[in-house]
Design a protein that fits this description.
- Strands 1, 2, 3, 4, 5, 6, 9, 10 and 11 form a nine-stranded antiparallel beta sheet that branches. The protein has a two-stranded antiparallel ribbon with strand order 7-8.
- The chain is α+β, with helices and mostly antiparallel strands and 181 residues long.
- The chain is built from one helix and eleven strands.
- A hairpin with a 3-residue loop joins strand 9 and strand 10.
- The protein has a single domain, classed as Lipocalin (Beta Barrel).
């Protein structure tokens, strides 16, 4: 009889452990729901294996970005930034804005997103001629991913990665996005 008691206890503990794993994914999704405001971003651009840009941008009156995760498994993000002269003939500050939306889900605790999530920097490679004029070349997005590095009640850290093929070069953009509520 005592052996049955131990066997029964072991079966109950296994069931509780299995349920806890499922609840973990549900808890993550519940914590993700709501509006998150970007505080700072680490932006890295690598072209054909050579790192060209590695910079940190902090939220300010000139830089704003947020993302809203909804209970229905959708998200929408928007960003706005005033940047210095990037080759424009008009000079001065230039306004950039972006908005993205998509769907998300959890497979266990693995996060899946149908689209990348925008930060302060717009995720399209821009090229400059020697004369300083902007030339945006036709590019093909080869891959994109979004990963949750940290999720707490008031802190969310995402890593997004986008890879483009442009003519013979491969452009890889990594963004580490640090949000708070």
């Amino acid at each position: 009889m005592r052996n049955l008691y131990y066997l029964f206890t072991a079966v109950i503990m296994c069931c509780l452990y299995a349920c806890a794993k499922d609840n973990s994914a549900k808890t993550q999704q519940a914590m993700l729901i709501g509006k998150w405001t970007l505080q700072h971003e680490n932006y890295q651009l690598t072209i054909s294996g050579v790192q060209k840009i590695d910079t940190i941008i902090t939220a300010s009156a000139n830089n704003y970005s947020s993302v809203q995760f909804n209970k229905a498994g959708t998200f929408a993000g928007a960003s706005f930034a005033l940047t210095g002269n990037t080759g424009s003939l008009s000079g001065g500050l230039q306004a950039q804005s972006d908005s993205l939306s998509g769907t998300y889900s959890f497979t266990g605790t693995l996060f899946n997103a149908s689209n990348t999530i925008t930060g302060f920097i717009i995720n399209t490679p821009v090229f400059f001629t020697s004369g300083g004029l902007n030339l945006a070349l036709t590019n093909t997005q080869a891959s994109q991913s979004v990963q949750i590095n940290q999720l707490k009640t008031t802190a969310l850290t995402l890593h997004t990665q986008i890879t483009y093929k442009v003519i013979a070069d491969t452009f890889k953009i990594d963004q580490y996005l640090y949000y708070t509520r």
